[in-house]
């Protein structure tokens, strides 16, 4: 699992470098207002991207099960079905967000002085959604058959290109936040197109022939079962973050800028835990498909141990380095922004164990054909987070810190539900 997970971890850490580079350059060279606008737009993009990722993860889970059972004909049919299904949804979403860009900006409670900057950024970023879909689609196909290294290599090239274009467009051409968006979109398309050609060239069973182009109702049902639930889980989880972003925006530009920076640090920190959860899910799915019960049990024990050790070390690191991490992105003179961001990192960073266990629970239930439970856990986490955020933030003595505290409380509640349910259903992995 660690050998498989490491490229996933490194790959998504590199993917976060898109956002880290943007935040660092924007914060240092374009100022607090631009940082607040890009950070708020980032939360929206995470929500939209989570829809594609959830669909692709579901399709990848089906391919994992079929690959474990050596069902290559089923893989081709799943490939055809998922490509048309997810591609069509991507196109529909792309059209809707471009047409509704102004209502979206208002829905996020964007301060009036930031609306024009957000529009300039979002209109370009939205044009990159097909590239985001294409990359994740082929990345999850390769990961489903045990190849997590190649997506990493293409992503590494894309990240380097993104950083170079950031400096060129912002410092050289003086394009402002539009330059940040253009750099990100161009880099995403490079990774997506390259990975697509590589996959089709090196994996013959992913190539569709004319004889494969036929409708299969069973395949559609299976893809919809996995992809829709995984998509709902991912999008609901990030919808909660988006709703919280609207509440954060109501506190003004300073809190927006602090949140934008701290969230990037936070996401970068626990991304390896999320990727380990995805690798754990692939491991369980392949062994579940092959009927290897004892190997599943050993995998669970090992995954819990690794997650516990890593999350505890991560908590010590992030809470101990909160100030210098914030000062990487904003000037030392922006003391209020730094202080607010440090409060966020102290609270979130102390409880990474909660999100680590939650990612394992998500992965386990997806792998043993119980994706609905992953959705239930997400709803428990989301519901607590959003409700408490609005309740606690309205108390003057607590204020914005109430938003920060609502997140680990949501993790803890979902963990409790997931562990209790596992105790009653753990014999599920004994049969296919």
TrEMBL record:
Keywords attached to this entry: Antiport, Cell membrane, Ion transport, Membrane, Transmembrane, Transmembrane helix, Transport
GO CC annotation terms, alphabetical: plasma membrane
Subcellular location field: Cell membrane
GO process annotations (BP): monoatomic ion transport
Membrane topology reported for the UniProt record: Multi-pass membrane protein
Segments passing through the bilayer: 43-67, 79-101, 121-140, 152-173, 179-200, 302-324, 344-363, 375-397, 403-422
Superkingdom of source: Bacteria
GO molecular function, one term: xenobiotic transmembrane transporter activity
Pfam families per UniProt: MatE
Matches recorded under CDD domains: MATE_yoeA_like (cd13138)
Main location: membrane
Protein name: Multidrug-efflux transporter
Gene source species: Phocaeicola coprophilus DSM 18228 = JCM 13818
Lineage: Bacteria, Pseudomonadati, Bacteroidota, Bacteroidia, Bacteroidales
């Amino acid at each position: 699992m660690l050998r498989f997970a490491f490229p996933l971890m490194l790959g998504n850490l590199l993917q976060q470098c898109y956002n880290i580079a943007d935040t660092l350059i924007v914060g240092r060279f374009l100022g607090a207002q631009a940082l607040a606008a890009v950070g708020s737009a980032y939360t929206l993009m995470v929500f939209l991207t989570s829809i594609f990722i959830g669909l692709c993860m579901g399709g990848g889970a089906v391919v994992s099960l079929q690959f474990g059972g050596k069902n290559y004909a089923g893989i081709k049919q799943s490939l055809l079905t998922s490509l048309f299904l997810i591609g069509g949804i991507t196109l529909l979403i792309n059209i809707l967000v471009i047409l509704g860009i102004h209502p979206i900006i208002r829905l996020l409670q964007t301060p009036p002085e930031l609306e024009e900057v957000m529009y300039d950024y979002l209109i370009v970023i939205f044009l990159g959604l097909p590239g985001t879909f294409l990359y994740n689609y082929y990345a999850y196909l390769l990961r489903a058959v045990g190849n997590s290294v190649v997506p990493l290599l293409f992503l590494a090239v894309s990240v380097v290109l993104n950083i170079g274009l950031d400096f060129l467009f912002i410092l050289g051409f003086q394009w402002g936040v539009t330059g940040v968006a253009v750099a990100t979109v161009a880099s995403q398309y490079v990774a997506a197109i390259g990975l697509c050609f590589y996959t089709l060239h090196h994996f013959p069973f992913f190539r569709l022939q004319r004889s494969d182009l036929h409708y299969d109702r069973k395949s559609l049902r299976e893809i919809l079962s996995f992809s829709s639930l995984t998509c709902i889980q991912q999008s609901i989880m990030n919808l909660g973050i988006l709703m919280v972003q609207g509440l954060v925006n109501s506190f003004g530009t300073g809190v927006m800028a602090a949140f934008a920076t701290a969230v990037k640090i936070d996401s970068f920190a626990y991304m390896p835990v999320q990727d380990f959860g995805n690798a754990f899910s692939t491991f369980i799915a392949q062994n579940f498909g092959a009927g290897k019960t004892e190997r599943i049990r050993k995998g669970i024990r090992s995954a819990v141990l690794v997650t516990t050790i890593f999350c505890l070390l991560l908590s010590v690191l992030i809470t101990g380095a909160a100030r210098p991490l914030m000062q990487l992105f904003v000037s030392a003179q922006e003391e209020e922004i730094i202080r607010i961001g440090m409060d966020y990192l102290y609270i979130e960073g102390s409880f990474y164990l909660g999100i680590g266990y939650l990612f394992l629970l998500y992965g386990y239930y997806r792998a043993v054909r119980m994706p609905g439970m992953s959705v239930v856990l997400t709803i428990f986490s989301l519901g607590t987070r959003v409700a408490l955020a609005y309740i606690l933030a309205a108390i003057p003595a607590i204020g914005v810190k109430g938003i920060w505290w609502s997140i680990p409380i949501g993790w803890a509640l979902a963990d409790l539900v997931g562990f209790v349910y596992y105790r009653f259903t753990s014999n599920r992995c004994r049969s296919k």
